[in-house]
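Marked as duplicate of an earlier ticket. Keeping the data here for the record.
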Amino acid sequence: MKRFRVFVLCVAVPLIALAGLMSTSISAAAYGPENWQIGFSGTGVNPGTGFGFGFWGWCGLGGGVTSGNTGDCQVSMYVHTPAGRVNCEQAINLTSWSGAGGTFVFLAGTTTTHPASATATCSLAGGLPPVINQPFDTMFPAAPGHYNFGNIFGTQVGHLQLQVTQIR
């Protein structure tokens, strides 16, 4: 029994600690070259009309602090009306972006919409077109912080939350 305790204290505990340290550094290095992480969500409803919308997602932007050449975003959105509804998700692959003007602007890239049959209606619901070839201002501040834009359009029927984190 005494030998087992010595083994645990001298061998097993240091190995477990080393494994924990290695997994932390590996997961941090695996994230990639991103300089910014952005998380966002918003919802809104127009009472009595049957109209409602919502979106949520995240972006990782890299290649520089004020502008860059890599970005990955995942955004889900919906619009519900009495006439129908649109539910879709977009994967956004950026090849150029800028934050130099005070907000993050997507300059070039591509999107993939799921389901593919919702590509046209997803763009109408606030999504991006399949090819980004002109500036799209996200209106997200290019400065670290948590932004609570409170109620959308001055009503108590929606919200907009945004978290912007500078990684390096």
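See parent ticket for discussion. The radius of gyration is 22 Å.
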